[in-house]
Amino acid sequence: MAELIQKKLQGEVEKYQQLQKDLSKSMSGRQKLEAQLTENNIVKEELALLDGSNVVFKLLGPVLVKQELGEARATVGKRLDYITAEISLGKPLGDNPGSLC
């Protein structure tokens, strides 16, 4: 009788620990998304201050590549839409959060 209760209790404790791990993982993903959202909003604000005479560069690996201002604004806008959608769905980003860059 005591063994049966002990096994059942151990199973419930393991379920609880797994739920704690899942919650921690979800919260970590959410925090990462919130940080990216804030960062991209700052970039959007900075890009809004520029005019056509300014030069914008994009970092691709170790190289800075010239980018059109309109293209940079569109990229940041898409990134913001993506991050906002991920936050509203409650799903963490995959292993490669920079894949949209």
Automatic annotation (TrEMBL):
Entry annotated with the keyword Chaperone: yes
Pfam families cross-referenced by the UniProt entry: Prefoldin_2
Transmembrane parts of this sequence: none
Keyword Membrane listed: no
An MF annotation (GO) of this entry: protein-folding chaperone binding
Coiled coil region boundaries: 2-36
GO cellular component: cytoplasm; prefoldin complex
InterPro entries assigned: PFD_beta-like, Prefoldin
Signal peptide interval: none
Source organism, top-level taxon: Eukaryota
SUPFAM superfamilies xref list: Prefoldin
GO biological process, one term: protein folding
Keywords: Chaperone, Coiled coil
Function recorded in the entry: Binds specifically to cytosolic chaperonin (c-CPN) and transfers target proteins to it. Binds to nascent polypeptide chain and promotes folding in an environment in which there are many competing pathways for nonnative proteins.
Assembly and oligomerization: Heterohexamer of two PFD-alpha type and four PFD-beta type subunits. Component of the PAQosome complex which is responsible for the biogenesis of several protein complexes and which consists of R2TP complex members RUVBL1, RUVBL2, RPAP3 and PIH1D1, URI complex members PFDN2, PFDN6, PDRG1, UXT and URI1 as well as ASDURF, POLR2E and DNAAF10/WDR92.
Family as reported in the entry's similarity comment: Belongs to the prefoldin subunit beta family.
Protein name: Prefoldin subunit 6
Organism: Rhinolophus ferrumequinum (Greater horseshoe bat)
Gene name, Swiss-Prot/TrEMBL: PFDN6
